Amino acid sequence: MDDINIIEFFLSDFINPKKRVFTGYLILSVVLASLWLLFVKRQSLQSTFKKIFDRKILWSGSAKADYKLFLVNRVFTFFISPLLISQVAISTAIYMFLHSVDSFNQNFFASTPTSIIIALFTITLFVVDDFTKYIVHRWMHKIPLLWAIHKVHHSAKTMTPITVYRVHPLEGVLFSLRSVFAQGLVIPSFLFFFGNAVDLYTIVGVNILVFFFHATGSNLRHSHIDIAYWKWLEHILISPSQHQVHHSIAEEHYDKNFGAALAIWDWVFGSLHLSENKGKVFFGLDTYESGKESRIKDLYLEPIYEIAKILKTFCIKLVSRLLNWLSLIRDLFLVQIKKNKS
Amino acid sequence: MIMKKLKVTTAIIAVALSGTMALSDGYGPFPVTLKGYSGDKTNTVSYSGQIARHVLEQSLKKLAGKGNGGGNAADLEAQMLSYFNGSDDDLPIIAPKSKDGFKIKQTSLHQISKGKNISGKFYDGAMPAWPGNMSGKDVAYNMIAMAAKSNKGFDADTGYDWAQLISKYTMGAMAYNQAVDNYLDEKLSAEKKPNNKPYKDGVHYTGKEHSWDEAFGYWGAAAHQHGFNPNKVYEIAKMKNQGVADKNGDGMVDLKSEYVFGPCYYAAAFDRSGTKSTNYTNTMFDAFLDGRKLITAAAGDALSDSERSQLKAYAATIEENWEKVLAEAVFKYAGSVYKDINKMKDLSGDDLNKAYRTYAKHWGELKGFAMAMQSGKSNLGATATKMNELIGFGPVTLNNSYVTGMDSNGNFVMDRKKSWSDYQLHMLKIQQMMVDQFSVKARANDGLNDLQALTDKLDSASSAETD
């Protein structure tokens, strides 16, 4: 691999419009943040600039750990991705399954106008993708085994757009599988019922809805710029400020705002928390000892230790319960034998 | 003294000729290398028998569509059998025949070769792909009898298109089988047909030279098509371009060396369709040509072990690619059947009958090629069993019934039904099987193509970001 290839290998996401950290989106985020600080928060040009490019945030120990994880995870992804189930495999299996259900009529909706088919597909894909993100994210918080992994992301004390890469590789695997399953379900279903007119509305090769999500500041979710929306809109779309609430250390903010782009899921399932204008929100985990959030080794290994601990406790519980049952059964037998004798 | 001088002169001419011949791009001519040969022949390439058999097959296919619903059954069957079993009489060539802009040199079989037949070179092992527990050859006889009784080669009740079935099956059971299971197999051993002896008494070519040429003949390539773009090969087989076919410029296409027959035609057809990522035609031609050059270079000596192992490597390339071409055909026609069903779902009346006829044609090709694959050298084992199960004995017909077997009187039994959707699923599975088992690459009519294209467009990895 020559030098250029190595740079490309590590930094390709910055030139890929499908990725959140695409340079174009980052520039738009800076523009949006500036507008917000200048015109809504009525700050001076100088303090706006200072706040956006705050050295204490962009170069904090936590942020440096983000950058390192970004690079190291790239290598992990390179080796792990080929081992995961491919989307084509899932799509094919589902497509074949749809053929085997007699009551399903292939091309049943094929006469729908093409523009409507494309719009429906574009929206469905986005909504299903977003919903599965909500579900998996919720699990990451509610299930102890998964929380052990997801903690890595929440340990960030300062947030920058690169914090999106601050995840344990195991979480990367789970989210890849989620994406594969979500798309693997929608694509074959649409092709089966709507025929080969199925396509996607795109801008620069990206689903138009995903493009708008990124172009309107998805990067600011992981930042200190607390852009909030109108209350009614925060019931539909998650604002950067709402996601910052999700990262807040305050107890009243625990397990709120799991949504990615849409707030509807949080609203429906009772985990919605609107943005607040209560001043500075602190990020991180209060259970984490100070400094750990910057140590790469801990970030990679702690989840493994914790998972091992959880599994060990689970196994011990399971074994003791089994032993209890066995002794209960033995006792019952003994009672029966005594009865038979008497 | 004069005789001695003559022999020396002949030898010098032969060496000089071999020099120029070695530069030839086509398959042949190749010089006489047989030691002790004193005749006047200069070219050892000979495979007119194979060409005659290709012509018999094409003519038989044409005849299979001549039935009038039973009235001419006996005559037609006899006529078809004369092409299948061969005849002492000189049979007219029914196909390929001259047409405007494409003149074919030969009009009767004896102008190519005498005493040739299909039946003597036909796979006769078990053929479980066809109902009735028959041997490979008996299946062919059964098909011929049925075709003769049919109306224009088609039986709407069962969905059988006899011309397609007979033709595609024969392409495997005769050409593929003879090449890969005989000439490129046992005849490459040290003991059989050695290179230091004539192929048979009185001929001017060696055992190995002729064995190799026979295999080349069964493949059916034009001798001069070396390095051709597959489109050109296709145009020759489809009789669309006499200029490309007529190598010697005599204004006629010589079937013996200038025409392209079935097996090679399909290699070219797949190179120019689907993903256009294959090179079956030239890979196979090169392997045939390199193998022949190797034999010629042995100069009439028995081949050494290393020469034979090199030759076997060329043979393996040919066999592997040939099998892939057949698998590509199965893939393609499974895709056609899949698409045809989609079309039929929306039709009724005459339109439906017309679409059903096309569907039956494609199914005949699918089945014929699937049977061809099972008549090669290697036993496809579980793959064959699964393939036969998925394709079935017959296509799902208009009333959803399909052939499930044959009764003791030789009548087809159709006592089960299957939905068209289910059958489409089978077609997708067949395509998947061709990819998994034979790594087909051209993938014409890919039923999962749209799925793949959309998946590529979406790139699931980009959506894997977490929050």
Provide structural commentary.
The complex is a heterodimer of chains A (342) and B (467). With 342 residues, chain A is mainly α. Helix content of chain A is 60%, strand content 1%. Chain A has helices at 3-11, 23-40, 45-52, 55-58, 61-80, 87-100, 114-142, 144-154, 169-194, 208-215, 240-246, 264-268, 296-341, and strands at residues 202-203, 206-207. In chain A, strands 1-2 form a two-stranded antiparallel sheet. In chain A, a hairpin with a 2-residue loop joins strand 1 and strand 2 (206-207). In chain A, helix 7 packs across helix 8 (144-154), helix 7 (114-142) runs antiparallel to helix 9 (169-194) and helix 8 (144-154) runs antiparallel to helix 13. Chain A is globular and about 95 Å long. Chain B is mostly helical. Chain B has helices spanning 2-23, 48-64, 73-85, 136-149, 162-183, 207-219, 230-237, 242-245, 262-271, 280-297, 305-345, 349-373, 382-391, 420-438, 449-458, and strands at 154-155, 160-161, 401-402, 405-406, 412-413, 416-417. The longest helix of chain B has 41 residues, at 305-345. The radius of gyration of chain B is 24 Å and the shape is globular. Classes of the chains: A mainly alpha (342), B mainly alpha (467). The A-B interface holds A 16, 18-20, 81, 87-88, 91-92, 95-96, 99-102, 104, 106-107, 125, 129, 133, 137, 153, 164, 167, 171-172, 175-176, 178-180, 182-184, 187-188, 191, 196, 198-200, 205-207, 210, 221, 243, 246, 260 and B 342, 345, 419, 421-422, 424-425, 428-429, 432, 448, 450-452, 454-455, 457-467.
